[in-house]
Amino acid sequence: METDDIIGAVAGCLSTAAFLPQAWQIWKSRSARDVSWAMYAVLIAGVGLWIVYGLRRGALPLVLTNGVILVLALVILAMKRRFGD
Fold first, then answer.
1. Cα distance between the two ends of the chain
2. SS3 for 36?
3. Based on the number of CB atoms within 10 Å of its own CB, is 76 exposed (0-12), middle (13-18) or buried (19 or more)?
4. Rounded to whole angstroms, how far apart are CA atoms 84 and 51?
5. Which of 14, 63, 68, 75 has the fewest beta carbons under 10 Å from its own?
6. pTM for the whole thing?
């Protein structure tokens, strides 16, 4: 594995893992009051564009990483809706 591939893999793992503490905190506290709808809307739009870019470039790691981020972001928004503001 080349250095660039290792850097990309670590970056993808860290970017994806960054959402896990937020999701866990919401689930544990049953509160999503401080989660911003606007921030997640912008994030989802950006992640969606990264997926399109990755598909167009044939970059499967980019597509997979952003796909997981998209799912986690949608789960967080679903919990925000469920647990209310």
1. 46
2. coil
3. buried
4. 29
5. 14
6. 0.87
CA angle centred on 47, ends 59 and 85, rounded to 5°: 155
Give the HSE-up count for residue 11: Cα atoms under 13 Å, Cβ half-sphere. 9
Segment 53-58 long-range contacts (CB within 8 Å, at least 24 positions apart): none
> What residues make up the domain containing 68?
3-83
Domain count, the chain: 1
CATH number of domain containing 39: 1.20.1280.290
CA distance 68 to 15: 10
* Number of neighbouring beta carbons within 10 Å of residue 56: 9
Mean pLDDT of 29-57: 95
